UniProtKB/TrEMBL annotation:
GO terms for cellular component: mitochondrion. It comes from the Eukaryota. InterPro entries: DnaJ_domain, HscB, HscB_C_sf, HscB_oligo_C, J_dom_sf. Gene3D superfamilies: DnaJ domain (1.10.287.110), HscB, C-terminal domain (1.20.1280.20). One of its GO terms (molecular function) is ATPase activator activity. Pfam families: HSCB_C. Keywords: Chaperone, Coiled coil. Residues 181-208 form a coiled coil. GO terms for biological process: [2Fe-2S] cluster assembly; protein complex oligomerization. Residues 76-148 form the J domain. This is Iron-sulfur cluster co-chaperone protein HscB. Belongs to the HscB family. The gene is Hsc20.
């Protein structure tokens, strides 16, 4: 194993090679590239029931007739959950807002309504879930904000330096050589701490409009999350042995 790792290190010194010989960027593409539809700003459409263009309550309900409107798949997730469009947010308040919205659109409340409102209820519930999961996870929240800025993530590891890549190789090696649950727990605890620090860094980078720094930090977070996933898989193997 040492000979293999040393060989890989020599490759990293001359190329931007993914750690441990795996294309982690492609493995985690779903984390870094959520499917986000962006729409230009537009005026509220007329209510499908009363035909009035009144202001919507909670972005979903006609303030004139009270009917649940068709889902707006292009709505800003922050706006939907009543948060300013910025990286820093309070997780407890986010969860509270999520639960309040889900209460409003819960299918049980529309079981005796029109078929259109029943469909809208399910559609809004699904979108609210998606918005919450995106904003609740730092790496996905950062990715979403980046795309709202019209930016895309790099398709390779060019945003990383060779020292970081070598460090990731060494950490993968530590996971592979760990022989007990305690060692894996210690490795995971360190990753959790570093991911929290990176989330704080992202907040500062977004405030400073340093989008290149944002991209680099998001890619680094992706690598740490991949190692964390490897730790969890090995912990499960140890439990099953």
């Amino acid at each position: 194993m040492r000979a293999v790792i040393n060989g890989l290190r020599s490759v990293v010194r001359t190329t931007n090679y993914a750690p441990n010989g795996r294309n982690i960027l492609r493995q985690n593409e779903c984390i870094l590239r959520p499917q986000i539809r962006l729409f230009a700003a537009k005026s509220s459409p007329a209510c499908w029931n009363c035909q009035n263009k009144s202001e919507l309550r909670q972005n979903m309900i006609c303030s004139d007739c009270g009917h649940l409107q068709d889902v707006d798949a292009g709505i800003n997730y922050f706006e939907l959950l009543s948060f300013p469009t910025k990286f820093s947010l309070e997780p407890q308040k986010l969860t509270q807002s999520f639960r309040q919205l889900q209460t409003i659109v819960h299918p049980d409340k529309y079981s005796n309504k029109t078929s259109r409102e029943q469909t809208n209820s399910a559609d809004w519930s699904s979108l609210i879930n998606k918005a919450y999961k995106t904003l609740a996870t730092p790496i996905e929240r950062g990715q979403y904000l980046l795309q709202l800025e019209g930016e895309t993530m790099p398709q390779d590891n060019s945003a990383l330096n060779k020292e970081f890549l070598m460090a990731m190789m060494e950490r993968n090696e530590e996971v592979e050589e760990a022989e007990d649950a305690k060692s894996l727990e210690d490795l995971n605890a360190q990753l959790v701490k570093e991911l929290e620090e990176m989330a704080q860094r992202l907040s500062s980078l977004f405030e400073a409009k340093d989008l290149q720094g944002v991209k680099g930090t998001l890619v680094e977070m992706k690598y740490l999350l991949s190692i964390q996933s490897s730790i969890k898989q090995k912990q499960q193997r140890l439990l099953g042995s």
